[in-house]
Amino acid sequence: MSFARRSLLSAAAASPLLLGRGARAQAATLKIGVLNDQSGVYKDISGPTSVAAVRQAIQDFGARSGLTVEVVAGDHQNKPDVGSNIARQWLDRDGVDVIVDVPNSAVALAVNGVVREKNKVFLNSGAATADLTGAQCTPNTIHWTYDTWMLAKSTGGAMVKAGGDSWFFVTADYAFGHALERDTGNFVKASGGRVLGNVRAPLGNTDFSSFLVQAQSSRAKIIGLANAGADTVNAVKQAAEFGITRRGTKIAVLLMFINDVHALGLAAAQGLVLTETFYWDLNDRTRAFTNRVKPHMAGNMPSMSHAGCYSAVLHYLKAAADMGPAAAKADGAAAVARMKAMPTDDDCFGAGSVRADGRKIHPAYLFEVKAPGESKGAWDYYKLLQTTPIDEAFRPLAEGGCPLVRS
Amino acid sequence: MDEIFGIPAPLLFGQLLLGLINGAFYAMMSLGLAVIFGLLNIINFTHGAQFMMGAFAAWMLLEWLGLNYWWALVLVPIIIGFTGVVLERLMISRLYKLDHIYGLLLTFGVGLIIEGIFRNQFGSSGLPYRIPPELQGAWDLGFMYMPIYRGWVVVAALVLCLATWLLIEKTRLGAYLRAATENAPLVQAFGVNVPRMVTLTYGFGVALAAIGGVLAAPIYSVNPQMGTNLIIVVFAVVVIGGMGSIIGSIVTGFGLGIVEGLTKVFWPEASATVVFVIMAIVLVARPAGLFGRA
Question: Most buried of B17, B153, B161, B209, CB within 10 angstroms?
């Protein structure tokens, strides 16, 4: 039975979804490949909505420049081998210059290596692992939107400060979950808190009640959910069901997007504390961006990950226009160096910059999910609790162990 | 505090109970598969998608028509069961004379298509569905906090399983069904409309999956891939219990739920694989399954 499933999947993998207008690229046409999950668990937080965000960036910038830009999209199916195969094909054969988005830390790390080898540009928005700007950093990669260190500091730090000094982690058992647990654990300990234990739940596990009951019996004040997507939604739903929060234990959701909150519904999600670097209703500029892009998003709402795709592509186009599209195509590392030299500014994240290690920096926002009575309309979900300023939100440059920084 | 194998006793009892609750889902799902395989000889890979459709149908009834959980429990099995009847008439019925593998491929493909359509229509993040007000709250058992809804799921699953078993093993209709499995032409010769019976049996199996979906909607995320996550484990349950064995799938469903629950305490990382390890051992030692006839 499983052999049939596998061969069907690999047949599907061999045909990446092409949204471009054919492969007849002219010399000065910039080609952007959006590589993400178009059909699986991360479709709503990346998927076609990211493609719409990238097209918006091209439209917003296009009027000001003579650049011709083409967009293709591919489905990596959350498999590192599928992702790096599509990346290789795009860069070798199809003339793609930039790969954008790539959620799923495992796939992102694989694509990271391919892009460096081909000297192209990798603008990651969707993946969480802070290793992309740490030990695995390259001169071709910029990690745009968020990372595990930033989430750990914003959400973890705030909960310890509010009295949550003993933690138990329920962790997704793969690279991303381990990194998030490690980074959060370090913050808890550094702030004088204790980590009482952890349990590693297999990815895609549907029933979290066993793990939650174990976490509760540790008598920790905070249960940290180091997972994502449907895993987090299931765990939060079941924590409410088993009365975990009614007994005073708090749930820390370490990674949650507005699309996950929508899936949970405010009744189950109210009171959760989470961190994003973008919220559509944050200020006039974010609202303006959302109004422009929303008609192209098929009912979905932009999360920080989609905003990151927009912002990253916009900044790349600025750099490419500045150095000339031919030069930007010829040398990916040079294009990234130009992006690092220019300050960033856009509707989603405001003013910011790209550091030497490839980390894009901007403020991080700690939100609380509103109760159903407080929400005034569709997607009115967050209350701003605190803002971590731009120079404190991400891991200090010297601590990441990125070889580009030492040299 | 008393400890058993270094685990506090209350925690262990709690996990046994949770295992039983999950086992209820496994039993209900594998029961539908066993009924379909036993009578149609079709390995119904669409079962996960039909489970998912059950959960979505409950959501649609609530959001679009304002019909609550209890209505869903009655209407959803009928609606989804009917889609099963249509599927059987239009496609599956053409494959009975062919090898098992054709039925498997067809139902697998249909399952993928249904899942894709729902993902396209409703996205991948899922939709909220609340526990009905009558079943909210929980009992404090001392060693754990037991949500009333989970208790309801176990009771509902047990009643359904028992009723299905009685229907097939103890009634005249069940006797016809079993006879048709053994020798369809002979039963037809006695004036029983075998093709219609087979069609309705498929619809019944699908309805069981749909009820599972309705029961699951308030506790799991209602999303297009919810069936895929469950169905692989359920297939292992069916193989361990013995393909087509009704009682086997019920007992194995509850048993494996408990085994999985205990694994979550002693070695959480292995909890997703333990069922398949058991399946491998059973296949080597008793290829027909624990309750199957070789």
Answer: B209
pLDDT for residue A15: 42
What is the domain extent for residue B222? 32-231
- Counted residue by residue, chain B has a size of 294
**Least CA distance to B232: which residue of chain A?**
A2
Residue B131: predicted pLDDT: 86
Quote the DSSP letter at residue A253.
Answer: E
Q: How many domains does chain A have?
A: 2
DSSP letters along B97-120, please?
TS-HHHHHHHHHHHHHHHHHHHHH
ipTM of the complex: 0.74
pLDDT exceeds cutoff 60 at A154: yes
Is B292 within a domain? no
Q: What is the pLDDT of residues B127-154, one digit of tens each?
A: 888 888 888 888 877 777 788 898 899 9
Judge: A242–B105 Cβ closer than 8 Å, yes or no.
no
pTM attached to this predicted model? 0.81
Same domain flag for A126 and A34: yes
Residue pair A236/A253 in contact by the 8 Å Cβ criterion: yes
Contacts of A8 in chain B (CB under 8 A): 108, 112
Inter-residue contact A118 to A137 (CB < 8 Å) = no
Cβ contact, residue pair A207, B235, below 8 Å: no
Dist CA A104 CA A94 (whole Å) = 24
* Residue A346 covered by a domain: yes
| For residue A3, pLDDT beyond 50 | no
- With cut-offs at 50, 70 and 90, classify the pLDDT of residue A184: very high
Please list, residue by residue across B254-285, b when 16 or more beta carbons sit within 10 angstroms of its beta carbon and e when fewer do: bbbbbbbbbbbbeebeebbebbbebbeebeee
**Structural domain boundaries enclosing A39:** 2-146+283-362
Q: Is the per-residue pLDDT at A9 higher than 50? A: no
Q: Is residue B7 part of a domain?
A: no
Residue A62 resides in a domain: yes
pLDDT in tens, B165-193: 999 889 998 888 888 878 888 888 888 88
Rounded distance between C-alpha atoms, residue B143 and residue B120, angstroms: 44
How many domains does one find in chain B?
1
Query: Are A351 and A378 members of one domain?
Result: no
Considering only the beta carbons, identify the residue of B11, B104, B119 that sits closest to A213.
B11
